[in-house]
Amino acid sequence: MPVDHSKNIIETKNISFAYGKEDVLKNITLDIHQGDYIGMLGPNGAGKTTLFKIMLGLLRPKMGTVKLFGEDISKFKDWQKIGYVPQTATNFDANFPATVFEVVAMGLSKKSHWFNRKTKTDLKRIATALEEVNMLPYQDRLIGDLSGGQQQRVFIARALVNNPEVLFLDEPTAGVDSATQNGFYEMLQTLNKNLGITLVLVSHDIERLTKEVMHIVCVDRTLTCHTSPEEYLKESESTNILGHKYKILPHNHNHKK
Amino acid sequence: MFSEIFQYGFILRGFEAGIIVALIAPLIGIFLVLKRYSLIADTLAHVSLAGIALGLFFGINPILTALGTSVIASLGIEKLRVSKKIYGESSLALFLSGSLALAAVLLSLAHGFNSNLFNYLFGSIVTVTQTDVYIIALLAIVLFSVLAFFYKDLVYLTFDEEAAKVSGVKTKLINSILIILAALTVSLSIPIVGVLLIAALIVIPVITALQLRKNFLKTIVYAQIISLISVITGIFVSFYFSLSTGGTIVLIMLAIFVLTLLIKKN
After folding, report:
1. B210 neighbourhood in chain A, CB within 8 Å
2. What's the pLDDT tens digit per position in B92-150?
3. Can you identify the CATH homologous superfamily of domain A8-247?
4. Shortest distance, CA B85 to any CA of chain A (angstroms)
5. Residue A198: phi, psi to the nearest 5?
6. When comparing pLDDT for A1 and B223, which is higher?
7. What architecture is the B3-260 domain classified under in CATH?
8. Closest chain B residue by Cα to residue A84
9. 10 Å Cβ neighbour count for A159?
């Protein structure tokens, strides 16, 4: 796919959001271009997941507009262009009776299947998506029997099955050991470079993120930075406060549902 | 040796209705169990009882009135759940006891507190008429078709509602369809196991099949097999030993469940 870095895939303008009376996001204006690889940083409760959910139409902003592929989100229909791996993806019921194949098949965009009958194209798409994340040999295993890192790959395959143009990943490496993470980030690079898929990634791993992504976006209720990884590192070294804030990231996952 | 049992028309009708219900209940049950909605079956069963009371009171076929009330109530329950004005379980309790109260009042008005009521509470295949069998068969076809058509969306929504929504699944619609289908299933199952035992019919074969750790489709098929075996042997056993049909069926299901757990443990 030819990548046009000047093309806006997602445009948010003056987004504000509140849970009850508490402001979570204020005046966020952010454009994401085709082929971007964006790392989103911010402390706990800074509104990163909320911003994701607004961009995906799961939450409606109190103020502001969201455009997906140039179209207002309320009119947007091409959801197969967007892949999403929620933070809670791996929080599923480990006894859920679905194989890796079945999980990936859930993502197929085609609306109605009589008892999920799949065409040859469907089967090929599932196989390709599983191959892209190196999980094809596991397709008949139950999802609950896999390790956290393997499950995460399967959820990415599910998001990839419709050949999306953009992939949203909310803390995909939470709870995954560092050896597995290496392979995971390598895979993301391949998706971005070889397949031209735009990636938007929330993570707490600053060190890793600054090595991998093209742009860093900092969210702390407002947009506090939008810069290159090099600039970000320079800034945070010179600003001790920022450095403290982001280098030692106390993070627990108790806020997950 | 079993030829005697088939000389009775009511037994044949019981088998017909029982087999249909045995095949349909796990189809809905798997989604309810995995979505942690198991108790909705019980609630809708009590709502159906109010429907039956309405039918007896006005002299309409009770299966039809049970269908109507449970479908309407199912939509009410779903609406309350989505609005989050009251907790999910509380809305179930509200509908369960509310409809039981309505049923009690209506039945006392219709002088329905007799052996007839016992049949509805615990199931009695004796009460199954030929018209009932036709209604059950027709609705089973509708239910099966709708389920088959929305199968993929239902599975996705059950597994991960948020991701399903992003990928374009109309989650509100699908949730409503699921609960309406649950209402239909519950009403259809009343003649076989009765109001008080329906939840067992919908839940136990599914949780048994889940122990086998197979894929989604296979889990459904195994649940149906378990359900069929239980219903057929249940009808036989209850006939020869003059036992409550519904009770016998549910006890057989429980026995299979316990057996599965024991085998799995070893």
Report:
1. 95, 97
2. 899 999 999 999 898 888 776 666 778 888 877 777 888 889 988 998 999 999 999 89
3. P-loop containing nucleotide triphosphate hydrolases (3.40.50.300)
4. 15
5. -75, 135
6. B223
7. Orthogonal Bundle (1.10)
8. B163
9. 27
